[in-house]
Amino acid sequence: MQTNEDKVALVSGANTGVGFQIAKALADDGYTVYAGSRDLQKGQAAIGQIGGKAKAVQLDITDHISVRAVVELIESEFGYLTLLVNNAAISHAGRSGRTMEEVLGSQRASIVPIDDLKAVWETNVFATLSITQAFLPLLHKASAARIVTVSSALGSLTINANPENPYRSAFDAAYGASKTALNGIFLSLAIDQENTNVKVHLVSPGFTSTALNNFQGTETVEEGSKEPIRVALAEDLPNGSFTGPANFSGIDNILPW
User: What residues contact 72, with CB distance under 8 A and at least 6 apart?
Assistant: First the structure.
C-alpha cells in the first residue's frame, strides 16, 4: 500500500452532505482528496472546511468532458488513484421544492413519467458506472485500490419484499429502484475485478437528512456519514461488500441484496 502521504482519493458530490463528510475524513487521514462538485465555487468553499490536502475540481458525472478533465488532472499530478468514492446522486428530476412525500408519490411505478425515471437513472446508475470506468485505469495503477459507492438500503429487494419493513412504501421506481440497479451493476463490477488490485464496496448511510430527501431524514448528516466514512477508510473489507448502519442492518452492518 501507499503511505498516507501518497493516498489519493476522488469524491464526487463532495461539496455538501455525506460526500463532504467523507472527503473531510479522508483529508484528516492524510489523503490528497479531489473534492468533486458540479459548481466549482461551491467546491472551493467546501475545501476551506475540508482542509488538509483537499483540492476542488469541477465534476459533473453526467458530463463526459468534465469527467475526462478530472481523469487527466489526476493522471498528470499523481499517475494513479487509490480510492474512488461515488457519492453524487439525485432523488428526482421533477419540480424542485416539493416535500419528500410529494416526490415519492409522483415516482410510483404506475404513474412516474418515463422521462423523469430515465433522468434519475442516468445520474444514479449510468453516469456512476461511466465515471467508474473512466477512472479504472488509474485505479489499476495503484498498488491497491478501492471503489466505494454510496447506495441505499432502500435499494435492497430483500428488505423491500418484507411487508414489515416500515420504509417499504418509499421504494419508488425512480430513486429507490435506481439504487437496486446500482447495487446489481456494482456487484457485477466487484465480480469483474475480483482478480485485480481493485476492491468494490457498496454502502448505505441510512435515512440521513440531506438535500436528497428535502432534509426530512431521521438522522443527521454526521450520524449518517459514519458507515460511509468507515468503509471509505477501511482497507481490509471483503470485495463486494454491501453494508449500512448497525442499527438498521443488524449483524456486522451487512445488508441483504
Answer: none
- Report how many domains make up the chain: 1
The three-state DSSP-derived secondary structure of 135-154 is HHHHHHCCCCEEEEEECCHH
The rounded distance, in Å, linking the Cα atoms of 218 and 138 is: 37
**Beta pairing partners, 200:** 147
Chain centre distance of CA 53: 21
Whether the Cβ atoms of residue 43 and residue 14 lie closer than 8 Å to each other: yes
Residue 75 grid coordinates: 493522471
AA identity, residue 155: G
CATH classification of the domain holding 120 = 3.40.50.720
Beta strands, E only, 2-42? 8-11, 32-37
Q: Which domain holds residue 205?
A: 4-253
Distance CA 209, CA 234 (A): 24
Distances from the Cα of 203 to the Cα of 5, 28, 183, angstroms: 25, 21, 10
Q: What is the pLDDT of residues 92-143, one digit of tens each?
A: 887 777 787 888 888 999 999 999 999 999 999 999 999 999 999 999 999 9
Query: What phi and psi, each to the nearest 5 degrees, are found at residue 63?
Result: -110, 110
| Residue 255 DSSP one-character state | P
The answer to whether the predicted template modeling score (pTM) of the entire model surpasses 0.90 is yes
198 membership: H or E segment, kind and range:
strand 198-203
